[in-house]
């Protein structure tokens, strides 16, 4: 994640159940050549043995030598180095890295193999898929042959981003899992809205682990093992306070730079109901204005505490589970004072409704095709019956002529 899985957020995510964390996507050239960039993005506590392990440090790169130089700076402070081949953002297109290396398999091989041969810690890679399953399989095999010791696959194509994100394709992930060598360590990524989706993904794909990016940013408890719904969707005031107390004790700049963005995401369901707080957050400069952040958190705490003092709070604070959807899971209805997934709206229609509508249309299309096939088969069968009848008539006619 670009600038979003910095030290403070990783510590918070581990508190809520994450067992393995990745750093933000670090720019290999800048990390290798700029001491200021390294100091801003990497602190003395990053990779700390007690607070920040196991840890994978993720780089984007298009130069094998610079990637190796960058990776050497984190040896001893992490458990693996990852090459990000999945970033679909415009900045990756301009810089020629992330998913925009998918046309240059030779370069990808050199990037991974250079680390594999010269680095004393494991190398991994995260990729996106092609529309063509077999091409995706050959791509994954190439990445593994270059030296990647495990593979993370995001079940979306490069074009599926922003308002075109859509549903990740678990079928192609399952296809890869079944056709790659059985000893391949395989991580799946995509469609993780709720904690139950992690178990569902592990069972359906038989992968070794499940990664969540956006789902985790809006609800760090997406990784919880608890079956209690209220543990799965913690109160925004509690998460916000936990996160802020961690940030205050994190050295370096990365956690402070990311704080405002995280506050907006944690409070995403809350802010439409309290617009005045949104305006206060906008005015905050987190790196200098910790008092401003503290005042916002105190106000959020006051509002949520007032809600929980109401006599009908048991009724108000209910979390309901919807019907089983075509994509395999159920949507939840969660009170706005609790963390919850974000469904990106397009033309006023949120992502959950778009996906449900698209799957229903696809299902109806399949049903219509099946009906047409049945009708066509009936026509064929009918013509066969008609032909048999004509033959029978002709044979009967011949018999009669012979009799005469």
From TrEMBL:
Tell me which species this is from: Wickerhamomyces mucosus
> Required co-factor?
FMN
GO MF annotation, one: tRNA dihydrouridine synthase activity
Q: What is this protein called?
A: tRNA-dihydrouridine(16/17) synthase [NAD(P)(+)]
Give the enzyme class: oxidoreductase
InterPro entries of this UniProt entry? Aldolase_TIM, DUS-like_FMN-bd, tRNA_hU_synthase_CS
Catalytic activity annotation: 5,6-dihydrouridine(17) in tRNA + NADP(+) = uridine(17) in tRNA + NADPH + H(+); 5,6-dihydrouridine(17) in tRNA + NAD(+) = uridine(17) in tRNA + NADH + H(+); a 5,6-dihydrouridine in mRNA + NAD(+) = a uridine in mRNA + NADH + H(+); 5,6-dihydrouridine(16) in tRNA + NADP(+) = uridine(16) in tRNA + NADPH + H(+)
Q: Which domain of life is it from?
A: Eukaryota
Pfam families reported for this sequence: Dus
Q: What is one GO biological process annotated to this record?
A: mRNA processing
Similarity comment text for this entry: Belongs to the Dus family. Dus1 subfamily.
Q: Where is the signal peptide?
A: none
Keywords of the record = Flavoprotein, FMN, mRNA processing, NAD, NADP, Oxidoreductase, tRNA processing
Q: What is its EC number?
A: 1.3.1.88
Q: Which residues form the DUS-like FMN-binding domain?
A: 1-282
């Amino acid at each position: 994640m670009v600038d979003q899985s910095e030290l403070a957020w990783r510590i918070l995510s581990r508190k809520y159940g994450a067992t393995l964390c990745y750093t933000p996507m670090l720019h290999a050239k800048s990390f290798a050549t700029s001491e200021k960039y390294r100091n801003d993005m990497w602190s003395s506590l990053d990779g700390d043995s007690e607070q920040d392990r196991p840890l994978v440090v993720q780089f984007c790169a298009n130069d094998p030598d610079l990637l190796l130089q960058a990776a050497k700076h984190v040896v001893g402070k992490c458990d693996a180095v990852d090459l990000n081949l999945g970033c679909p953002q415009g900045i990756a297109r301009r810089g020629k890295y992330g998913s925009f290396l998918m046309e240059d398999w030779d370069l990808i091989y050199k990037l991974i193999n250079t680390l594999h041969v010269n680095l004393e810690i494991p190398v991994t890679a995260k990729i996106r898929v092609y529309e063509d399953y077999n091409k995706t399989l050959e791509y994954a095999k190439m990445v593994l042959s270059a030296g990647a010791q495990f593979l993370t696959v995001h079940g979306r194509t490069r074009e599926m981003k922003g308002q075109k994100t859509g549903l990740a394709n678990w079928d192609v992930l399952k296809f890869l899992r079944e056709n790659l060598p059985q000893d391949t360590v395989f991580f799946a990524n995509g469609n993780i809205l709720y904690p139950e989706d992690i178990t569902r993904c592990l069972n359906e794909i038989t992968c070794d682990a499940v990664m969540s990016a956006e789902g985790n940013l809006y609800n760090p408890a997406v990784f919880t093992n608890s079956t209690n719904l209220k543990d799965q969707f913690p109160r925004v005031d509690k998460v916000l306070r936990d996160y802020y107390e961690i940030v205050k004790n994190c050295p370096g700049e990365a956690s402070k730079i990311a704080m405002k963005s995280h506050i907006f995401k944690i409070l995403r369901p809350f802010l439409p109901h309290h617009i005045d707080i949104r305006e206060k957050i906008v005015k905050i400069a987190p790196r200098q204005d910790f008092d401003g952040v503290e005042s916002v958190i105190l106000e959020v705490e006051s509002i949520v505490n007032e809600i929980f003092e109401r006599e009908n709070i048991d009724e108000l604070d209910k979390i309901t589970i919807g019907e089983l959807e075509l994509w395999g899971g159920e949507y939840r209805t969660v009170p706005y004072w609790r963390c919850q997934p974000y469904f990106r709206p397009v033309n006023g229609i949120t992502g959950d409704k778009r996906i449900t509508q698209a799957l229903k249309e696809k299902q109806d299309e399949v049903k219509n095709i099946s009906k047409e096939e049945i009708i066509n088969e009936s026509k064929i069968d009918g013509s066969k019956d008609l032909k048999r009848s004509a033959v029978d008539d002709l044979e009967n006619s011949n018999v009669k002529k012979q009799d005469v």
